[in-house]
Amino acid sequence: MSSIPADLKYLESHEWARLESDGTVTVGISDHAQSALGDLVFVEVPEIGKTVEKGAATAVVESVKAASDVYSPVSGEIVAVNEALSGSPELVNQDPYGQGWLFKVKPSDTAELGQLLDAGAYEKVVEKEAH
Amino acid sequence: MGHKTPLFDTHTAAGARMVDFGGWDMPVHYGSQIEEHHAVRRDAGMFDVSHMLAVDVTGARAREFLRYVLANDVAKLKEPGKALYSCMLNERGGVVDDLIVYYLSDTSWRVVVNAGTRDKDLAWLQRFAGTYGVDIRPRTDLAMVAVQGPQARSKVANLLGEHGAAALEIKTFYGRELGRYFVSRTGYTGEDGFEIMLPAGEVAAFWQALKSAGVRECGLGARDTLRLEAGMNLYGNDMDENVTPLESGLTWTVAFDPSDRDFVGRVALEEQRKAGVARKLVGLVLEDRGVLRSHQKVVVEGIGEGEITSGTFSPTMERSIAFARVPAATGDRVQVDIRGKLLPARVVKFPFVRNGKVLVQ
Protein backbone atom coordinates (compact mmCIF):
# COMPACT_ATOMS: atom_id res chain seq x y z
CA MET A 1 0.00 0.00 0.00
CA SER A 2 1.38 3.39 -0.91
CA SER A 3 1.76 6.19 1.62
CA ILE A 4 -0.71 9.12 1.53
CA PRO A 5 0.17 11.74 4.20
CA ALA A 6 -2.96 13.20 5.82
CA ASP A 7 -1.60 16.78 5.94
CA LEU A 8 -1.30 17.17 2.15
CA LYS A 9 -3.75 18.01 -0.64
CA TYR A 10 -3.88 16.05 -3.90
CA LEU A 11 -4.90 16.14 -7.55
CA GLU A 12 -6.56 13.16 -9.24
CA SER A 13 -3.56 13.15 -11.57
CA HIS A 14 -1.37 12.19 -8.55
CA GLU A 15 0.33 15.48 -7.62
CA TRP A 16 0.50 16.56 -3.98
CA ALA A 17 0.48 20.13 -2.63
CA ARG A 18 1.63 21.44 0.74
CA LEU A 19 0.91 24.96 1.98
CA GLU A 20 4.10 26.18 3.68
CA SER A 21 4.23 28.69 6.56
CA ASP A 22 5.64 31.33 4.17
CA GLY A 23 2.48 31.11 2.04
CA THR A 24 4.08 29.21 -0.86
CA VAL A 25 2.81 25.83 -2.06
CA THR A 26 5.29 22.96 -2.54
CA VAL A 27 4.38 20.44 -5.26
CA GLY A 28 5.49 16.87 -5.92
CA ILE A 29 4.12 13.55 -7.13
CA SER A 30 2.57 10.95 -4.82
CA ASP A 31 4.14 7.74 -3.64
CA HIS A 32 1.60 5.88 -5.76
CA ALA A 33 2.66 7.86 -8.84
CA GLN A 34 6.40 7.29 -8.38
CA SER A 35 5.81 3.59 -7.84
CA ALA A 36 3.64 3.33 -10.98
CA LEU A 37 6.23 5.19 -13.06
CA GLY A 38 9.18 3.14 -11.85
CA ASP A 39 12.78 4.36 -11.65
CA LEU A 40 12.91 8.04 -12.62
CA VAL A 41 15.84 9.01 -14.83
CA PHE A 42 15.06 12.61 -15.78
CA VAL A 43 13.02 15.47 -14.35
CA GLU A 44 12.31 18.67 -16.29
CA VAL A 45 11.40 21.46 -13.86
CA PRO A 46 9.90 24.84 -14.86
CA GLU A 47 11.83 28.11 -14.94
CA ILE A 48 11.73 30.27 -11.83
CA GLY A 49 9.50 33.30 -12.38
CA LYS A 50 7.21 31.50 -14.80
CA THR A 51 3.48 32.01 -14.30
CA VAL A 52 1.44 28.80 -14.21
CA GLU A 53 -2.27 28.05 -14.27
CA LYS A 54 -3.96 25.49 -12.07
CA GLY A 55 -4.08 22.21 -14.00
CA ALA A 56 -1.41 23.24 -16.52
CA ALA A 57 1.46 20.91 -17.45
CA THR A 58 4.32 22.45 -15.46
CA ALA A 59 7.02 19.78 -15.09
CA VAL A 60 7.88 16.45 -16.75
CA VAL A 61 9.02 13.32 -14.96
CA GLU A 62 10.56 10.58 -17.07
CA SER A 63 11.07 7.03 -15.94
CA VAL A 64 12.93 4.39 -17.94
CA LYS A 65 9.48 3.51 -19.28
CA ALA A 66 7.75 6.78 -20.17
CA ALA A 67 7.47 10.56 -19.84
CA SER A 68 4.61 12.03 -17.76
CA ASP A 69 3.43 15.59 -17.33
CA VAL A 70 3.11 17.03 -13.84
CA TYR A 71 0.23 19.49 -13.41
CA SER A 72 0.28 22.44 -11.07
CA PRO A 73 -2.37 22.12 -8.35
CA VAL A 74 -2.65 25.92 -8.05
CA SER A 75 -2.20 29.04 -10.20
CA GLY A 76 0.63 31.42 -9.45
CA GLU A 77 4.31 32.11 -9.95
CA ILE A 78 7.11 29.52 -9.75
CA VAL A 79 9.37 30.72 -6.93
CA ALA A 80 11.65 27.69 -6.48
CA VAL A 81 12.54 24.42 -8.21
CA ASN A 82 14.32 21.37 -6.81
CA GLU A 83 17.77 21.68 -8.40
CA ALA A 84 18.95 18.43 -6.78
CA LEU A 85 16.73 16.45 -9.16
CA SER A 86 18.85 17.25 -12.21
CA GLY A 87 21.65 15.09 -10.79
CA SER A 88 19.52 12.74 -8.68
CA PRO A 89 16.07 12.16 -10.20
CA GLU A 90 15.83 9.01 -8.06
CA LEU A 91 15.10 11.26 -5.04
CA VAL A 92 11.50 11.32 -6.30
CA ASN A 93 11.35 7.53 -5.96
CA GLN A 94 13.13 7.44 -2.63
CA ASP A 95 11.38 10.32 -0.87
CA PRO A 96 8.40 11.58 -2.91
CA TYR A 97 7.00 13.80 -0.14
CA GLY A 98 10.35 15.13 1.10
CA GLN A 99 13.60 15.48 -0.88
CA GLY A 100 11.75 14.53 -4.06
CA TRP A 101 9.64 17.71 -4.24
CA LEU A 102 9.51 19.32 -7.71
CA PHE A 103 8.65 23.04 -7.51
CA LYS A 104 7.16 25.77 -5.30
CA VAL A 105 4.36 28.09 -6.39
CA LYS A 106 3.44 31.45 -4.88
CA PRO A 107 -0.34 31.09 -5.28
CA SER A 108 -2.36 33.90 -6.83
CA ASP A 109 -5.59 32.56 -5.35
CA THR A 110 -5.33 30.57 -2.11
CA ALA A 111 -8.99 29.53 -2.47
CA GLU A 112 -7.84 27.05 -5.14
CA LEU A 113 -6.25 24.97 -2.39
CA GLY A 114 -9.71 24.26 -1.04
CA GLN A 115 -10.71 22.67 -4.32
CA LEU A 116 -8.03 19.95 -4.04
CA LEU A 117 -8.63 16.42 -2.76
CA ASP A 118 -7.88 15.59 0.85
CA ALA A 119 -5.99 12.40 1.74
CA GLY A 120 -9.17 10.34 2.13
CA ALA A 121 -10.57 11.35 -1.25
CA TYR A 122 -7.21 10.75 -2.92
CA GLU A 123 -6.97 7.31 -1.34
CA LYS A 124 -10.25 6.43 -3.07
CA VAL A 125 -8.78 7.56 -6.41
CA VAL A 126 -5.78 5.26 -5.91
CA GLU A 127 -8.01 2.37 -4.86
CA LYS A 128 -10.20 2.82 -7.91
CA GLU A 129 -7.16 2.68 -10.19
CA ALA A 130 -6.07 -0.60 -8.67
CA HIS A 131 -9.29 -2.26 -9.88
CA MET B 1 -7.14 -10.39 -19.36
CA GLY B 2 -4.29 -11.57 -21.55
CA HIS B 3 -2.58 -14.92 -21.92
CA LYS B 4 -0.63 -16.15 -18.92
CA THR B 5 2.67 -18.01 -18.83
CA PRO B 6 3.14 -20.92 -16.38
CA LEU B 7 5.06 -18.45 -14.15
CA PHE B 8 2.23 -15.90 -13.84
CA ASP B 9 1.43 -16.78 -10.20
CA THR B 10 5.14 -16.80 -9.35
CA HIS B 11 5.50 -13.26 -10.71
CA THR B 12 2.50 -11.83 -8.88
CA ALA B 13 3.53 -13.53 -5.64
CA ALA B 14 6.95 -11.85 -5.98
CA GLY B 15 5.27 -8.45 -6.26
CA ALA B 16 5.89 -7.92 -9.96
CA ARG B 17 4.14 -5.08 -11.75
CA MET B 18 2.32 -6.79 -14.63
CA VAL B 19 1.69 -5.22 -18.05
CA ASP B 20 0.26 -6.31 -21.36
CA PHE B 21 2.90 -7.33 -23.90
CA GLY B 22 1.65 -8.63 -27.24
CA GLY B 23 -1.50 -9.97 -25.60
CA TRP B 24 0.37 -11.54 -22.66
CA ASP B 25 0.32 -10.51 -18.99
CA MET B 26 4.03 -10.13 -18.29
CA PRO B 27 6.16 -8.69 -15.46
CA VAL B 28 7.65 -5.30 -16.35
CA HIS B 29 9.71 -5.13 -13.15
CA TYR B 30 9.83 -6.56 -9.63
CA GLY B 31 10.63 -3.27 -7.88
CA SER B 32 13.52 -1.56 -9.65
CA GLN B 33 14.02 -1.92 -13.37
CA ILE B 34 17.44 -0.27 -13.13
CA GLU B 35 18.70 -2.65 -10.43
CA GLU B 36 17.48 -5.58 -12.52
CA HIS B 37 19.39 -4.20 -15.50
CA HIS B 38 22.60 -3.89 -13.46
CA ALA B 39 22.19 -7.44 -12.11
CA VAL B 40 22.39 -8.79 -15.67
CA ARG B 41 25.41 -6.63 -16.59
CA ARG B 42 27.29 -7.44 -13.37
CA ASP B 43 26.09 -10.85 -12.11
CA ALA B 44 23.07 -12.85 -13.27
CA GLY B 45 19.41 -12.17 -13.97
CA MET B 46 16.54 -14.23 -15.33
CA PHE B 47 13.58 -13.50 -17.56
CA ASP B 48 10.39 -15.42 -18.15
CA VAL B 49 10.25 -15.66 -21.94
CA SER B 50 7.59 -18.36 -22.07
CA HIS B 51 5.41 -16.04 -24.13
CA MET B 52 7.74 -16.70 -27.03
CA LEU B 53 6.97 -19.80 -29.07
CA ALA B 54 9.16 -22.71 -30.09
CA VAL B 55 8.02 -24.34 -33.32
CA ASP B 56 9.43 -27.68 -34.46
CA VAL B 57 9.80 -28.08 -38.21
CA THR B 58 10.30 -31.69 -39.30
CA GLY B 59 10.38 -33.60 -42.56
CA ALA B 60 12.75 -34.91 -45.21
CA ARG B 61 12.68 -31.52 -46.99
CA ALA B 62 12.82 -29.35 -43.86
CA ARG B 63 16.12 -27.70 -44.83
CA GLU B 64 14.83 -26.89 -48.30
CA PHE B 65 11.68 -25.41 -46.75
CA LEU B 66 13.61 -23.17 -44.35
CA ARG B 67 15.98 -22.04 -47.12
CA TYR B 68 12.88 -20.79 -48.92
CA VAL B 69 10.94 -19.11 -46.06
CA LEU B 70 13.91 -17.45 -44.30
CA ALA B 71 16.06 -14.58 -45.59
CA ASN B 72 19.19 -15.95 -43.92
CA ASP B 73 20.43 -19.29 -45.24
CA VAL B 74 20.18 -22.33 -42.95
CA ALA B 75 22.65 -24.08 -45.26
CA LYS B 76 25.27 -22.12 -43.27
CA LEU B 77 24.51 -24.42 -40.34
CA LYS B 78 26.92 -27.36 -40.63
CA GLU B 79 26.93 -28.72 -37.08
CA PRO B 80 23.88 -30.01 -35.19
CA GLY B 81 22.91 -27.58 -32.45
CA LYS B 82 24.10 -24.48 -34.30
CA ALA B 83 21.69 -21.54 -34.30
CA LEU B 84 21.04 -18.81 -36.87
CA TYR B 85 19.27 -15.44 -36.54
CA SER B 86 17.02 -14.61 -39.47
CA CYS B 87 14.12 -12.54 -40.68
CA MET B 88 11.10 -14.12 -42.29
CA LEU B 89 9.91 -11.83 -45.09
CA ASN B 90 6.79 -11.26 -47.11
CA GLU B 91 6.92 -10.94 -50.90
CA ARG B 92 7.48 -7.16 -50.59
CA GLY B 93 10.59 -7.79 -48.50
CA GLY B 94 8.79 -6.58 -45.34
CA VAL B 95 9.61 -8.34 -42.08
CA VAL B 96 6.94 -10.84 -40.96
CA ASP B 97 9.05 -11.65 -37.89
CA ASP B 98 12.62 -12.12 -36.72
CA LEU B 99 13.55 -15.45 -35.18
CA ILE B 100 16.23 -17.92 -34.21
CA VAL B 101 16.42 -21.30 -35.92
CA TYR B 102 18.30 -24.30 -34.48
CA TYR B 103 19.64 -27.13 -36.64
CA LEU B 104 18.89 -30.30 -34.68
CA SER B 105 19.24 -32.85 -37.50
CA ASP B 106 18.77 -32.87 -41.28
CA THR B 107 15.07 -33.59 -40.79
CA SER B 108 14.44 -31.71 -37.54
CA TRP B 109 14.75 -27.97 -36.84
CA ARG B 110 13.48 -25.69 -34.08
CA VAL B 111 12.38 -22.11 -34.70
CA VAL B 112 11.75 -19.62 -31.85
CA VAL B 113 9.43 -16.72 -32.71
CA ASN B 114 8.09 -13.61 -30.98
CA ALA B 115 5.04 -13.61 -28.71
CA GLY B 116 3.00 -10.94 -30.47
CA THR B 117 3.40 -12.60 -33.86
CA ARG B 118 3.01 -16.27 -33.01
CA ASP B 119 -0.36 -16.87 -34.70
CA LYS B 120 0.65 -14.92 -37.79
CA ASP B 121 3.97 -16.79 -37.97
CA LEU B 122 2.34 -20.19 -37.68
CA ALA B 123 -0.09 -19.33 -40.47
CA TRP B 124 2.79 -18.04 -42.59
CA LEU B 125 4.84 -21.22 -42.09
CA GLN B 126 1.78 -23.39 -42.78
CA ARG B 127 1.20 -21.56 -46.03
CA PHE B 128 4.41 -23.00 -47.50
CA ALA B 129 4.60 -26.24 -45.49
CA GLY B 130 2.41 -28.31 -47.79
CA THR B 131 4.64 -27.80 -50.83
CA TYR B 132 7.60 -29.17 -48.91
CA GLY B 133 5.71 -31.85 -46.99
CA VAL B 134 7.01 -30.58 -43.64
CA ASP B 135 5.27 -30.80 -40.29
CA ILE B 136 4.90 -27.57 -38.26
CA ARG B 137 4.43 -28.25 -34.56
CA PRO B 138 4.02 -25.40 -32.04
CA ARG B 139 5.57 -26.47 -28.72
CA THR B 140 3.07 -24.86 -26.38
CA ASP B 141 4.04 -27.57 -23.87
CA LEU B 142 7.38 -25.82 -23.28
CA ALA B 143 8.22 -22.89 -21.02
CA MET B 144 11.28 -20.74 -21.61
CA VAL B 145 13.62 -18.95 -19.20
CA ALA B 146 16.54 -16.71 -20.20
CA VAL B 147 19.36 -16.54 -17.64
CA GLN B 148 21.84 -13.82 -18.55
CA GLY B 149 24.94 -12.20 -17.14
CA PRO B 150 28.60 -12.99 -16.43
CA GLN B 151 27.64 -15.49 -13.69
CA ALA B 152 24.60 -16.92 -15.50
CA ARG B 153 26.10 -20.04 -17.06
CA SER B 154 27.81 -21.29 -13.93
CA LYS B 155 24.69 -20.72 -11.83
CA VAL B 156 22.52 -22.63 -14.30
CA ALA B 157 25.06 -25.44 -14.68
CA ASN B 158 25.07 -25.98 -10.90
CA LEU B 159 21.35 -26.74 -11.06
CA LEU B 160 21.55 -29.19 -13.95
CA GLY B 161 23.14 -32.06 -11.97
CA GLU B 162 24.62 -34.68 -14.30
CA HIS B 163 24.08 -32.34 -17.27
CA GLY B 164 25.97 -29.42 -15.74
CA ALA B 165 29.34 -30.16 -17.33
CA ALA B 166 27.74 -30.69 -20.76
CA ALA B 167 25.91 -27.36 -20.45
CA LEU B 168 29.18 -25.52 -19.83
CA GLU B 169 30.61 -27.00 -23.03
CA ILE B 170 27.89 -25.45 -25.19
CA LYS B 171 29.49 -22.94 -27.55
CA THR B 172 28.15 -19.44 -28.27
CA PHE B 173 25.05 -19.57 -30.45
CA TYR B 174 24.60 -23.32 -30.09
CA GLY B 175 21.80 -25.25 -28.39
CA ARG B 176 21.69 -28.74 -26.99
CA GLU B 177 19.11 -31.16 -25.65
CA LEU B 178 20.03 -32.14 -22.07
CA GLY B 179 17.49 -34.57 -20.66
CA ARG B 180 14.13 -32.81 -20.69
CA TYR B 181 15.78 -29.41 -21.11
CA PHE B 182 16.90 -27.70 -24.30
CA VAL B 183 19.73 -25.36 -23.35
CA SER B 184 21.14 -22.76 -25.73
CA ARG B 185 23.90 -20.21 -25.32
CA THR B 186 21.88 -17.33 -26.71
CA GLY B 187 20.15 -14.24 -25.39
CA TYR B 188 18.87 -10.73 -25.92
CA THR B 189 21.02 -8.72 -23.53
CA GLY B 190 24.57 -8.52 -24.91
CA GLU B 191 25.79 -10.70 -22.04
CA ASP B 192 26.80 -14.36 -21.95
CA GLY B 193 24.13 -16.74 -20.73
CA PHE B 194 21.64 -19.46 -21.50
CA GLU B 195 18.09 -19.71 -22.70
CA ILE B 196 16.43 -22.85 -21.36
CA MET B 197 13.32 -24.53 -22.71
CA LEU B 198 11.71 -27.05 -20.40
CA PRO B 199 8.33 -28.70 -19.73
CA ALA B 200 5.84 -26.04 -18.58
CA GLY B 201 5.03 -28.03 -15.42
CA GLU B 202 8.66 -27.88 -14.25
CA VAL B 203 9.40 -24.22 -14.79
CA ALA B 204 8.11 -22.86 -11.46
CA ALA B 205 10.47 -25.14 -9.49
CA PHE B 206 13.36 -24.31 -11.83
CA TRP B 207 12.71 -20.57 -11.42
CA GLN B 208 12.64 -20.95 -7.63
CA ALA B 209 15.92 -22.87 -7.69
CA LEU B 210 17.55 -20.15 -9.78
CA LYS B 211 16.27 -17.51 -7.36
CA SER B 212 17.70 -19.46 -4.41
CA ALA B 213 21.01 -19.61 -6.29
CA GLY B 214 21.06 -15.79 -6.34
CA VAL B 215 19.78 -15.16 -9.86
CA ARG B 216 17.75 -11.95 -9.82
CA GLU B 217 14.21 -11.86 -11.30
CA CYS B 218 14.09 -9.35 -14.16
CA GLY B 219 11.12 -7.97 -16.05
CA LEU B 220 10.50 -6.84 -19.59
CA GLY B 221 11.59 -3.31 -18.67
CA ALA B 222 15.18 -4.40 -18.04
CA ARG B 223 14.99 -6.73 -21.03
CA ASP B 224 14.24 -3.69 -23.20
CA THR B 225 17.04 -1.46 -21.86
CA LEU B 226 19.50 -4.37 -22.10
CA ARG B 227 18.62 -5.23 -25.70
CA LEU B 228 18.79 -1.55 -26.69
CA GLU B 229 22.27 -1.21 -25.20
CA ALA B 230 23.20 -4.44 -27.01
CA GLY B 231 22.00 -2.95 -30.31
CA MET B 232 19.39 -5.65 -30.87
CA ASN B 233 16.20 -4.88 -32.78
CA LEU B 234 12.72 -5.32 -31.35
CA TYR B 235 10.07 -6.54 -33.74
CA GLY B 236 7.15 -4.13 -34.00
CA ASN B 237 9.33 -1.16 -32.95
CA ASP B 238 12.44 -1.24 -35.11
CA MET B 239 11.03 -3.25 -38.01
CA ASP B 240 7.71 -4.61 -39.19
CA GLU B 241 5.97 -5.73 -42.38
CA ASN B 242 6.37 -2.30 -43.97
CA VAL B 243 10.16 -2.07 -43.88
CA THR B 244 12.87 -4.40 -45.16
CA PRO B 245 15.93 -5.74 -43.31
CA LEU B 246 18.05 -3.43 -45.49
CA GLU B 247 16.37 -0.40 -43.85
CA SER B 248 16.53 -1.97 -40.39
CA GLY B 249 20.22 -2.52 -39.75
CA LEU B 250 19.76 -6.19 -40.63
CA THR B 251 21.47 -6.44 -44.03
CA TRP B 252 23.99 -8.80 -42.40
CA THR B 253 21.18 -11.30 -41.79
CA VAL B 254 20.17 -11.53 -45.45
CA ALA B 255 22.05 -14.20 -47.41
CA PHE B 256 22.10 -13.02 -51.05
CA ASP B 257 24.72 -15.71 -51.75
CA PRO B 258 24.37 -18.22 -53.24
CA SER B 259 22.60 -16.21 -55.91
CA ASP B 260 20.54 -19.18 -57.10
CA ARG B 261 18.75 -19.63 -53.74
CA ASP B 262 15.22 -18.36 -54.07
CA PHE B 263 13.62 -17.10 -50.84
CA VAL B 264 10.45 -15.20 -50.06
CA GLY B 265 11.16 -11.48 -50.49
CA ARG B 266 14.37 -11.92 -52.47
CA VAL B 267 13.12 -10.20 -55.63
CA ALA B 268 11.91 -7.16 -53.68
CA LEU B 269 15.19 -6.85 -51.75
CA GLU B 270 17.27 -7.07 -54.90
CA GLU B 271 15.18 -4.36 -56.52
CA GLN B 272 15.56 -2.17 -53.46
CA ARG B 273 19.31 -2.74 -53.39
CA LYS B 274 19.60 -1.85 -57.09
CA ALA B 275 17.52 1.31 -56.71
CA GLY B 276 19.48 2.29 -53.58
CA VAL B 277 18.26 1.89 -50.01
CA ALA B 278 16.86 5.28 -49.01
CA ARG B 279 16.88 4.84 -45.23
CA LYS B 280 19.06 3.22 -42.61
CA LEU B 281 18.75 2.32 -38.95
CA VAL B 282 21.39 3.96 -36.75
CA GLY B 283 22.23 4.29 -33.08
CA LEU B 284 21.89 7.66 -31.35
CA VAL B 285 23.40 9.01 -28.14
CA LEU B 286 21.73 12.13 -26.75
CA GLU B 287 24.30 14.80 -25.84
CA ASP B 288 22.10 16.68 -23.36
CA ARG B 289 19.99 15.45 -20.49
CA GLY B 290 16.60 14.07 -21.47
CA VAL B 291 15.20 10.79 -22.75
CA LEU B 292 14.83 9.69 -26.36
CA ARG B 293 11.56 7.86 -27.05
CA SER B 294 10.07 6.02 -30.02
CA HIS B 295 8.27 8.24 -32.59
CA GLN B 296 10.24 11.38 -31.75
CA LYS B 297 11.21 13.24 -34.91
CA VAL B 298 14.86 13.26 -36.00
CA VAL B 299 16.06 16.28 -37.98
CA VAL B 300 19.10 15.82 -40.23
CA GLU B 301 20.24 19.25 -41.31
CA GLY B 302 20.36 19.69 -45.07
CA ILE B 303 19.22 16.13 -45.68
CA GLY B 304 15.78 15.44 -44.29
CA GLU B 305 13.96 13.83 -41.40
CA GLY B 306 13.77 10.51 -39.67
CA GLU B 307 12.15 8.93 -36.64
CA ILE B 308 13.23 7.21 -33.47
CA THR B 309 12.08 3.58 -33.47
CA SER B 310 13.18 2.70 -29.89
CA GLY B 311 14.62 4.93 -27.23
CA THR B 312 15.42 4.77 -23.56
CA PHE B 313 17.68 5.83 -20.76
CA SER B 314 20.73 3.55 -20.71
CA PRO B 315 21.41 2.53 -17.09
CA THR B 316 24.96 1.42 -18.00
CA MET B 317 25.91 4.63 -19.85
CA GLU B 318 23.72 6.89 -17.69
CA ARG B 319 22.51 8.76 -20.74
CA SER B 320 19.81 8.37 -23.29
CA ILE B 321 20.28 6.14 -26.35
CA ALA B 322 18.03 5.22 -29.26
CA PHE B 323 17.62 3.51 -32.60
CA ALA B 324 16.45 5.80 -35.39
CA ARG B 325 15.47 5.27 -39.01
CA VAL B 326 17.05 8.16 -40.93
CA PRO B 327 17.92 9.12 -44.53
CA ALA B 328 20.79 7.00 -45.89
CA ALA B 329 23.01 10.08 -46.34
CA THR B 330 22.84 10.98 -42.61
CA GLY B 331 26.29 11.72 -41.18
CA ASP B 332 27.42 11.64 -37.57
CA ARG B 333 25.17 14.33 -36.07
CA VAL B 334 21.41 14.81 -35.88
CA GLN B 335 18.88 16.71 -33.78
CA VAL B 336 15.91 15.17 -32.01
CA ASP B 337 12.63 16.98 -31.37
CA ILE B 338 11.80 16.44 -27.70
CA ARG B 339 8.61 18.27 -26.72
CA GLY B 340 9.26 20.99 -29.28
CA LYS B 341 12.95 21.49 -28.44
CA LEU B 342 15.67 20.34 -30.86
CA LEU B 343 18.41 18.56 -28.91
CA PRO B 344 21.71 17.39 -30.47
CA ALA B 345 22.49 13.67 -30.73
CA ARG B 346 25.45 11.73 -32.09
CA VAL B 347 25.13 8.89 -34.58
CA VAL B 348 27.02 5.81 -33.39
CA LYS B 349 27.61 2.20 -34.41
CA PHE B 350 25.85 -0.69 -32.64
CA PRO B 351 26.22 -2.07 -30.08
CA PHE B 352 26.35 0.54 -27.33
CA VAL B 353 27.32 -1.99 -24.65
CA ARG B 354 28.56 -5.57 -24.80
CA ASN B 355 29.73 -7.92 -22.03
CA GLY B 356 29.46 -5.18 -19.43
CA LYS B 357 31.62 -2.71 -21.38
CA VAL B 358 30.52 0.57 -22.96
CA LEU B 359 31.66 0.56 -26.60
CA VAL B 360 30.66 4.08 -27.65
CA GLN B 361 31.98 7.31 -26.21
3D architecture notes:
- The complex is a heterodimer of chains A (131) and B (361).
- Chain A is an alpha+beta fold and 131 residues long.
- Chain A has a single domain, classed as Beta Barrel (OB fold (Dihydrolipoamide Acetyltransferase, E2P)).
- Chain A has 4 helices and 9 strands; from the N terminus they run βββαβββββααβα.
- In chain A, the strands form 2 sheets. In chain A, strands 1-2-3-9-8-5 form a 6-stranded antiparallel beta sheet. A 3-stranded antiparallel beta sheet of chain A has the order 4-6-7, with no helix packed on it.
- Chain A is globular, with a radius of gyration of 14 Å.
- Chain B is an alpha+beta fold.
- Chain B has 9 helices and 21 strands.
- A 6-stranded mixed beta sheet of chain B has the order 10-11-12-9-3-13. A 6-stranded antiparallel barrel of chain B has the order 14-17-16-15-18-19. Chain B has a 5-stranded antiparallel beta sheet with strand order 5-6-7-4-8, with helices on one face.
- The mean pLDDT of chain B is 97.
- The interface between A and B is medium-sized, with 14 and 17 residues.
Q: What's the layout of helices and strands?
A:
The complex is a heterodimer of chains A (131) and B (361).
Chain A: E1 9-10, E2 15-19, E3 25-29, H1 31-37, E4 40-44, E5 51-52, E6 57-63, E7 67-71, E8 76-81, H2 84-87, H3 91-94, E9 103-107, H4 119-130
Antiparallel strand pairs in A: 1-2, 2-3, 3-9, 4-6, 5-8, 6-7, 8-9
Chain B: H1 8-13, E1 17-21, E2 24-29, H2 33-42, E3 45-48, E4 53-58, H3 62-69, E5 83-89, E6 95-105, E7 108-113, H4 118-132, E8 135-138, E9 142-148, H5 152-159, H6 164-168, E10 175-178, E11 181-184, E12 193-199, H7 203-212, E13 216-217, H8 220-229, H9 266-275, E14 279-286, E15 297-300, E16 304-314, E17 319-327, E18 333-338, E19 341-348, E20 353-354, E21 357-358
Parallel strand pairs in B: 3-13
Antiparallel strand pairs in B: 1-2, 3-9, 4-7, 4-8, 5-6, 6-7, 9-12, 10-11, 11-12, 14-17, 14-19, 15-16, 15-18, 16-17, 18-19, 20-21
